[in-house]
Amino acid sequence: MATPAIRMFRRLEGLFCVYKPPGVHWKLVRDTVQTNLLKGLNDTPSQPLPHEVRFLVQSSSDGEAAKAVTVSAASVPVLSKHPLVTGPEFQDIRVGVGHRLDVFSSGVLVLAVGNGNKKLNDLHSTQVTREYMLEGEFGTATRDFSHTGPVVERSTYDHITQDKLERVLAMLEGVNQKAMLTYSKVDLRSQEAYEMAVHGLLAPEGKSPPIITGLRCIRFQPPNFTLEVQCLNETQKYLCKLVHEIGLELRSTAVCNAVRRTRDGFFTLQDALTRHHWTAADIMQAVQQYHSAKRERKHSQSLISAPLQTSEGNMAAAQEKERSKK
C-alpha cells in the first residue's frame, strides 16, 4: 500500500513554473525548490509501525519456579522500520528545468517533477514561442550588450523618435517572418500553409537560428524604451544583441538594462510562483492547474484540427473529380 508521502509525490508529478528573480542562478532556484519539496514530502504523517509476534521470557521470584522457563506471546512494534532507523522516505527527487534563464535575466522558469520531465522534453520539441520584455537605453554601447558590461562607446540619441523606432522594428519583424517561412519547410502555395498561417501554427522544423515572431515598442521615453518580443530558439545573449542592433539601425547605440520572460509556451507570469510560494502545497496546486489546463487545450486543439482535416478532404475530393473528368 502506498504511503502518504508516495501519494503526495504522485500528485506533484507534472509541470509548473516559478518566477526567477534577477541576479540568481537557475541552479539555485532548482535546488531551493527541490529542498522544499523533499521537506514537504518527508513531513507527511508516517504510517504506523508494523507489529510482529515475539515470545517474551517471564521471570519469576519463586526459586523453584525459576528452574522452568515461562514464555508468553506478545505483539511488539518492528523498530527496524522506524523513521529514525530507516531515515527519510524521500532522499532525492528529480526536478528538471525547461528553457533556462541566465543570471542577468528574470521571469518565468518552467520546472518539472518526476514523470513531468518527459513532458518537459515535449515542451522543447513542440517549438513553443516565448515572450520577453526588454528594457533598453539609448546612448551607450558595451562589450557584452548589457548595462553591466564595459562601456566601449557613447553616442547621441536626440534624433531618435518613436516613429523611427517602430519602422526599424517592423523591418526586423518582416525579415524574421521570411526566415520563419524558410525554416518551416512548408509549400507556401499549398492550402495547408494557408491554414497553418491563419491559426498561427507555422514553426521551424528541426534546428534553426533565433527567430522573432513578434516585436513592438510598448514604452518610449528617451533614452529609455521597452520592447515586447515573441521569439523561438533564442538566448538571452541574443536578445541583448538585438537591442544593440536596433541602436545601430537608428544611427546610435543602445544597451539592454533588463530581460524579463513573461511567457514560456502556455506558462505566463500569472502562473509563476514567487519565492514565498515555493512550497510543496503551492507547487501541488500549480501542477493540478497544469493538468486541468492541458485537458482544456487538448479539447480546443481537436476543434481546430477538425476544419483543417475537412479542408484537406475537400481538396482531395476536388482533385479526384478533376482527374475523373479528364
UniProtKB/TrEMBL annotation:
PANTHER family: PSEUDOURIDINE SYNTHASE-RELATED, PSEUDOURIDYLATE SYNTHASE TRUB2, MITOCHONDRIAL. Belongs to the pseudouridine synthase TruB family. It comes from the Eukaryota. Residues 93-236 form the Pseudouridine synthase II N-terminal domain. The gene is trub2. Pfam families: TruB_N. GO terms for molecular function: pseudouridine synthase activity; RNA binding. This is Pseudouridylate synthase TRUB2, mitochondrial. Signal peptide: none annotated. Residues 296-326 are annotated as: Disordered. Residues 301-313 have a biased composition (Polar residues). GO terms for biological process: pseudouridine synthesis; RNA processing.
